[in-house]
Design goal:
CATH class: Alpha Beta
Number of domains: 1
Largest sheet: 10 strands, mixed
Strand content: 15-25%
Radius of gyration: 19 Å
Number of helices: 9
Shape: globular
Helix content: 25-40%
Low-confidence stretches: none
CATH topology: Spore Coat Polysaccharide Biosynthesis Protein SpsA, Chain A
Structural class: alpha/beta
CATH superfamily: Spore Coat Polysaccharide Biosynthesis Protein SpsA, Chain A
Distance between the termini: 21 Å
CATH architecture: Alpha-Beta Complex
Length: about 290
């Protein structure tokens, strides 16, 4: 979990991890692709450890683990420091929000692939990375799969990734279920001016460049449901509509689809105010 927050000008940057005691990123030792897993966090001391343990519990050994903290003051760093010898690199300093933090992780990544796993999110099981790597075609530049959304009410929903041709309809997969070539994301990065849809904009730009996407049938991650407020849900829908319109030449089709989608969001937001909590969680997951 990493939400936008005001800067903390008096905070001094600190860093640690195994890499600070050696020269450069850890090279692959088994002839396999090194995967850089980036976790961004801010004031999530009760969530960060489950993510750390999930990463460390993967049976795929070629993993570089990077934690980017936005200047936590709640004890999050105490948890991170407990795993200092197991984390390749971590740092803590103020940032401009989640996408700025993700870009900082990209700057530090030395693997062949980058995967983002936010604080509180976990892999579906210990074999996920091994299975995903075995499924990657030689020419792929972006690999994406399904994810599971977990709600506070206990409701869970499996989200199967859609075909990349449906990207104009909205985010068809979670960025926590995506591996992207490090060289590609270092070149383009996330637009920090887009507060809640920069991942969608980044993916859409790659799609329009005809980059090579591979859809995996594997459910990669378990993601804590965002719990966005009604206003943020509306804003996300509007931002995705704007981005889809900017990147395609079929505005009429896109407008009709997203107008209908926007109406659906408004109706669900109204229903969630009057429905029991469990039903509200179900509606949020649709």
């Amino acid at each position: 979990m990493h939400s936008d927050h005001p800067p903390l000008p008096a905070f001094t940057r600190v860093e640690g991890g195994a890499r600070t005691r050696q020269a450069g990123p850890r090279p692959s030792t088994e002839g396999k692709d090194l995967i850089s897993i980036v976790t961004v966090v801010w004031n999530a001391k009760d969530l960060i450890e489950r993510t750390i343990l999930s990463v460390l519990g993967q049976t795929y050994n070629e993993v570089e683990f990077i934690v980017i903290d936005g200047g936590s003051t709640d004890g999050t760093l105490d948890v991170v420091r407990r795993y200092d010898t197991k984390i390749d690199y971590w740092t803590s300093e103020p940032d401009k929000g989640i996408y700025d933090a993700m870009n900082k992780g990209v700057d530090r990544a030395g693997g062949e692939w980058v995967l983002f796993l936010n604080a509180g999110d976990v892999f579906c099981d210990s074999e996920v990375l091994k299975n995903v790597v075995q499924d990657i075609p030689p020419d792929a530049e972006v690999v994406y799969g399904g994810h599971q959304e977990d709600y506070e009410s206990g409701y869970r929903s499996i989200r199967t990734a859609g075909p990349i041709s449906d990207l104009w309809k909205g985010m068809i997969f979670s960025h926590q279920a995506m591996l992207v070539k490090t060289s590609l994301i270092k070149r383009y990065k996330f637009n920090v001016a887009s507060r809640i849809a920069a991942d969608y904009e980044f993916i859409y730009s790659l799609y329009q460049q005809r980059r090579r996407f591979h859809r995996s049938q594997i459910v990669i991650s378990r993601v804590l449901a965002d719990g966005f407020s009604a206003s943020r849900n509306l804003r996300l829908t509007l931002d995705q509509w704007r981005i889809a319109r900017n990147y395609t030449d079929q505005p009429v089709m896109i407008d009709l689809y997203h107008l209908t989608k926007l109406a659906g969001v408004c109706i669900k937001n109204m229903l969630k105010k009057v429905m029991p909590r469990r039903v509200s969680a179900y509606l949020r997951s649709r």
